[in-house]
Amino acid sequence: MTTHPIAWLCVVIFILAYVAVMAEEKLHLKKSKPVILAAGIIWALIAWLATGEGVSHESLSTAVMHDLEEYSAMFLFLLVAMTYINAMEERQVFDSLRSWLIRKGFSYRQLFWVTGFLAFFISPVADNLTTALLMGAVIMSVGGSPAFVTMAMINVVVASNAGGAFSPFGDITTLMVWQADKVEFFTFFSLFIPSVVNFIIPATIMNFFIDSGRPAALEDHAGIRRGGLGVCALFLITIALAVSFENFFGLPPFMGMMTGLSLLMFYTYFLQLRGLTSSRPIPVMDDEQKEDLDIFKRVAHAEWDTLLFFFGVIFSVGGLRYLGYLEVISESMYTGVGPTWTNIAAGVFSAILDNIPVMFAILGMSPEMDVFQWLLITLTAGVGGSLLSIGSAAGVALMGTAKGRYTFLSHLKWSWAIALGYAASIATHFLVNG
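Structure (tokenized):
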């Protein structure tokens, strides 16, 4: 059906929707809106075309339910992770870390490296967006010359994306590969050294262009609220449950995550009973204090735009797969060009088009690749978005919070250094894991 005019129209609709996604900052239009609309129109056109070709409604429904199964597993996993992150934010875990960094009075170069390393090691657990916003807030609070702010922001974006690439739950793309059973959980950590190389090389280059001065130490006191450390511990237990359900019970990871969510619900319930929402124990709490620890409020504050964007991408790309386009691309690229160069090119392409549809399209093609090649595309899709500021959620978010100081063009000036790190990380993967 790939040559039918209606099939071509589906491709055009998807391209237009993604142009709107890429222009999100200019249009002030949430990225989920155009892709959800595109998904609905694409499948309506497919149904019209398929019915004319004699395809039964049951067959179409089966195809849609296949995409729904993939989406629901990812949705539940991410929803739990986002709820935990929101709970830690409400308990001021991240505010406390930011306050400590500001009070330490690091030099500009020290702050550059500290925020970079923290971004690298926090993003494997938290998502790269939350990590980038946290480190970006520290950089903006300290201030300094525009050149320092720009390079520190770029460093945080690169570090956040690199840190998420070696963890099965560090980025949506790694999570997709893990849940598709392409790579086992602990095998992802073999990407640690290539990810470090991807972060270190551009950071080392930019280090020589940073002022050697020291900003004035600021007084910023924010402590972790009661129960905050308990939430952090439960998050680690929840991740362990997700891994255990997958490895030992043969169950999807989201079952372990949902079990962990129930633990958080009971934990906040007992915190409310003990009256631990304030700095001192109190026997009775008013409605406002109870609302702070209401776990359903934390669920409501999840990144719904991202979750619904993911819905639109999965069903839009799923429609193109049903039409046969992914099979054509897979045949021409993975069979013709070869998996190595195709995976490297896919990473570069993810800097322009978000890595989520790129990875989902590749998983939809399901090319015959060994674990080494699946790790390669996981690495390139994860760190390729750092090449441009619009290539990752971390870069887009920081452009919004640091308007005028971190921009598309300021990031582009250092893309050559980031590209060196990208190439070196691929070479390292071949050296270490090949």
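Residues 57-90 form the longest helix (34 residues). Confidence is low (pLDDT under 50) at residues 276-291.
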